[in-house]
Amino acid sequence: MYLRSQCLLIALGVASAVPTFAQTCTFDAAHARFADFLTTASLNGGAVLVGTSQGILSETYYGTFNAATVVPIASATKLASALRVLQVVERGQADFDAPVSTYLPAFTGEKGMMSLRQMFSHTAGYGNDSTIDVLLDDTITLAEAVDQIACCRPLNAGYTVGGQFSYGGVSMHIAGGVVEVVGGGDWQQRWQSEIGAPLGISTIDWQAFGSSTNYGIAGGARSNLRDYGRLMHMLANGGRGNNTRVLRASSIEQLDVDNVGDLPIAFAPVNANPPVRYSLGAWLDTVTGENAPSFLHSLGAFGFLPWFDSERGLYGVFMIRAFPGINSTALPTYLAMISDIRSEFAASACTPIESTDGIFASEFDPY
Hints:
This protein has 10 helices and 13 strands. The protein is of the alpha+beta class. Residues 1-15 and 354-367 have low confidence and may be disordered.
């Protein structure tokens, strides 16, 4: 059981911050920015989690949000999905660079040449979600949607496999189909049994917008704050969480590799800070004033942001549920918050809050 904080509530207009647990690092500057943003955006709630491989440093809920609040995470789904792709590759069930036709023979010609790496880094020849109707069809399964793409959805006009970066969900949908074929069946069930259950996760599924088996691999998941924090803790802990190894440290390290390089940018969302760098389901980004990729994140359209600073072993989850497109408005605040958090982390002896259940207290294991 965690020690409960004795902090007083802070009056913040429509949003009041409730530090749920005692904490040695308060991250007051970051929380002040977040509270101001919630007020300016007229949002009735939000939440912030910060941690390291050794545990949670801060967990705070604002307004109507609490530990049970579950929200659609939009494109933060991409990173959660990428972890399952990494897992099947690590287990030898698939190869990151093999042609998709190896696993899905219905993909022929140039379409058959795209790889899992390209599909999960927006360089496979699709993008800008020109086939979004297939992704959102709740009357079909994921496998049936992938069959439709193979049959009847050509690459984007003027695109080539591996020839450009174009942000979208179609290629990740195809990759989800590959994982179902090589990884033992239904995407959601296998993600939950192979990643969710080992980490003690109970709220993450691919049902954010209603019941469906056409799982939105790139944007259809939902989560509460703590469960996505479990994923980020596992990254910070080299692939281990809840005293269980989920991925090798070498697999986690692939998330720090830029898969865009010098490719032309055919399409990128407005929140993509140039130069565009993307790994697998996550952006490689910088905080203002820095000139090299310094952390990865998977920002969702509704404002949900998981991030991981591998150099410092520091991670966070910023949680809101707002209108589509608020991510661009929120990002400057989020970058400033991360800068504030880094500064306090560097200057203070931030002692994690201990947990008797071991979920956030696993010893680092660089297997």
